[in-house]
TrEMBL record:
Catalyzed chemical reaction(s): ATP + protein L-histidine = ADP + protein N-phospho-L-histidine
Gene3D superfamilies named among the record's database cross-references: 1.10.287.130, Histidine kinase-like ATPase, C-terminal domain
Database matches in SMART domains: HATPase_c, HisKA
Upper lineage: Bacteria, Pseudomonadati, Bacteroidota, Cytophagia, Cytophagales
Residue intervals passing through the bilayer: 7-27, 33-59
Entry protein name: histidine kinase
Record PANTHER family: PHOSPHATE REGULON SENSOR PROTEIN PHOR (PTHR45453)
EC top class named in words: transferase
EC number in record: 2.7.13.3
Length: 346
């Protein structure tokens, strides 16, 4: 700024001194010392007072505003902080508006950076997950083409392995589409009265053989009731229980137990899926619902799965206006719980 508080105070104080000196010249018979003492006093006091007032009320705040604009031009929004000021109310308001603008823009920038980071991580994860079954199936097919197809036993063995990897690839793609549609809000939940006891029984029948291979007992605790109606999308809730119960079986030790508890509480139904497995370390609990996140990558890969199950569970439960919670302790198993609205017949 070419004009600062000192320069402006100097001009104004000199002007006041000149005006007062001119006025004194009109007064007859004044001592000569008055004609030079009074202007000096007026100039000195005027300069000090005007400089202090201008600096305190205006120029200090203007410098702060210019400093804020400079940081905005340099995209240095994170360093813009609110300051307690005592200047003119209009300047204070401008400064607060600039800070609010910078704060909003900084939040948007951080969100965009975070989204870009998630996007890069997601692409890397998808590439890795797709690469594994594709390369495996590709290897089996090329081995057959290189001559192994003539051996009937090897041919059938490799074809089955290739088919298994392609089935896994299909499941991964389907889960990716489901997560993408849910995050984009393209899937509408069709709420209808659903007997949750019947859903759990169907899941147990579907996963009974898998549980039996590990000697795991599947148990439903519903207070002796065989019919508890909730408002839910039957197909999606079925998907939630498939993922939660299959995970419970997958990560439970042999001869363990998986328990689904249904407990009515007023207008809600508390649902808990508990296993007696290895448990989840505390540092992983807040990330297990992320896409492709695996607590133990080597063990998860060995036991199969797309790595999207819990992410799908989270989206479906949230679409039912609820929240899935997890409690876990190492060596004591894990417990996943959420609420559904009970159906009230008219």
């Amino acid at each position: 700024m070419l004009l600062n508080s000192k320069g402006l105070a100097l001009v104004l104080a000199a002007s006041i001194a000149v005006i007062i000196t001119g006025s004194l010249l009109l007064v007859p018979d004044l001592p000569s010392f008055v004609l030079w003492l009074v202007p000096i006093i007026c100039f000195g006091t005027g300069y000090i007072l005007i400089n202090v007032v201008l600096e305190f009320l205006f120029f200090k705040e203007l410098r702060n505003i210019y400093d804020m604009f400079g940081k905005i031009r340099n995209n240095d929004l994170a360093t813009i902080k609110p300051k307690r000021t005592y200047g003119h109310s209009s300047l204070n308001q401008i400064q607060q508006e600039i800070y609010s603008y910078a704060h909003v823009k900084q939040s948007e920038i951080e969100e965009l950076k975070q989204m870009a980071k998630f996007r890069r991580q997601f692409l890397a994860d998808v590439s890795h997950e797709l690469k594994t079954p594709i390369f495996a199936a590709q290897g089996f097919v090329h081995t057959l083409l290189d001559g192994a197809i003539d051996d009937k036993s090897i041919r059938m063995k490799f074809l089955k392995k290739a088919a298994k990897n392609l089935d896994g690839l299909d499941a991964l793609v389907q889960d990716l589409l489901t997560v993408s549609h849910m995050e984009a809000g393209d899937i509408t939940m069709h709420m209808e009265p659903t007997n949750i006891c019947e859903v759990v029984d169907e899941i147990f029948d579907q996963l009974e053989e898998r549980a039996a291979k590990k000697g795991i007992t599947l148990k439903l605790e519903s207070g002796g009731q065989d019919k508890i109606l909730v408002l839910a999308d039957n197909q999606r809730i079925h998907q939630v229980f498939v993922n939660l119960v299959s995970n419970a079986i997958k990560y439970s030790d042999e001869n363990g137990q998986v328990v689904v508890t249904l407990e009515p509480t007023g207008k809600k139904l508390d649902i808990t899926v508990k296993d007696s497995g290895i448990g989840i370390p505390a540092e992983h609990l807040n990330r297990i619902f992320e896409r492709f996140y695996r607590v133990d990558k080597s063990r998860s890969k060995a036991q199969g799965g797309t790595g999207l199950g819990l992410s799908i569970v989270k989206h479906i439960v949230e679409a039912h206006m609820s929240e899935v919670k997890v409690v876990s302790h190492i060596g004591e198993g894990s417990s996943f719980s959420f609420e559904l609205e009970r159906y009230q017949s008219q």
